Amino acid sequence: MTTMILDTDLTGLHCPDPLRHAFAAKTSAHAGRSALGHFEPEDAQRQWNSIMEQEASPQMRLAYFHIPFCRTHCSYCGFFQNASKVDAIEKYVGYLEREIELTGKGTYVQSQPINAVYFGGGTPTDLTADQIRRLGKAIKAHLNVADDVEMTFESRFNGLDDDKIAAAIEVGFNRVSLGLQTFDTFIRRKMSRIDTKEFLLERLDHLCAQGNVSTVVDLIYGLPYQTVDHWLEDINLISNQTASHGVDLYQLVMMGFTRMAQQVEKGSMPAPGDTAFKATLFKLGVENMIANGWDRLSISHWGRKSADGRILERNIYNHQTKAGSEIIPFGCGGGGKVNGHSVMLHRNLEPYYAMIDAGKKPMMAMMHVDPELATNRALGAAFDLGRLNFNTFDTAAGADISRHCMPLFEAWQKNGLAELDEHNLNLTLAGQFWNVTMNQALNNYLDRYPFEDVAA
Fold first, then answer.
1. Residue 321 has what DSSP assignment?
2. Among 153, 199, 251, 278, which has the highest number of CB atoms less than 10 A from its own CB?
């Protein structure tokens, strides 16, 4: 029988201020379990083809479309792939249309509806209006999308002109997700975002007037140069000078290979706020969003009714990705989860094109099925919402796993990160700030102390 030792990397510190000091730092944007083995390339293709011949089980399903081009490389971004060039994008769109048609022939794709579609990148902003129409029509022609599908077009503000907005709405997009980051013009330009506050507000006015389209923006806290006043002004502006329907409040996680990290190391840019400062901004963000009448849809995502009282922001794709739902991937660099397998498509254009020409899904990697898939999905959904229901957790695991994890839950309660009641583990404000770290800690706990091992 394994002896259980609860180190502070699992429990956090017992300290007077757990919001700011329970853990050393947030090191990742997502939690995960131990790495699984992957298929060899030829086996991955065969496995994909086999899955496509099967009927899919009824469940929430998503589709992700990757547009791997950007006109500028934002300093905080670690996902830049290709510079935007007119001819290159036109060629890519043609191949993506072919991939949509090819994938849409699969029984697996057609047997259950897709509940949410997401165009990301890179940036879809650099598509032309005609290319947006072509891709939207290809999706409707070849994929089984639900009648109430949420279709998201991710975009920067610069380049999202009225023709592109009209084209997106024409082919069914009903949600626009905009990388605002901050309204402050000086900070934006330091991040290689060129647009002014006034331009952002004008574009938001136009988008919010489109009727049945949910307009959602991302705000980031912890940016270099950012102060408390900057953060509060961002929340005030989005709340009181726009009719935006949704807001994501994201903590900056500076990755070491980004231009921002390099500039900070060279001393040409000040370091981002430390963890304690980010925790302060998180607390102020929660308090001020509530004070401004926003409804909390998840720990980081907020929504509110439109001016005429309708709920346009549903947050389907964002939450379901955290919950580990099926994601059918499309496009160079697209990733997803299909029939329990994590999948990555080729990140380089030439092998992507070559496989489409050969009539194959452009697979780069496929992982073996996670044996703890159902448990991990339950945890991902719970930590995104800030509440873990014990019955849901036990049902997913097929065992009384909540009782097995209770020593860790009780330690979190003692350390001010959670509160326990008869049915749930509820994250406190401090726990909400550390939710990804705590999700990872619970994953690590289950890896170190498997239920069967301890129970034996």
1. H
2. 153
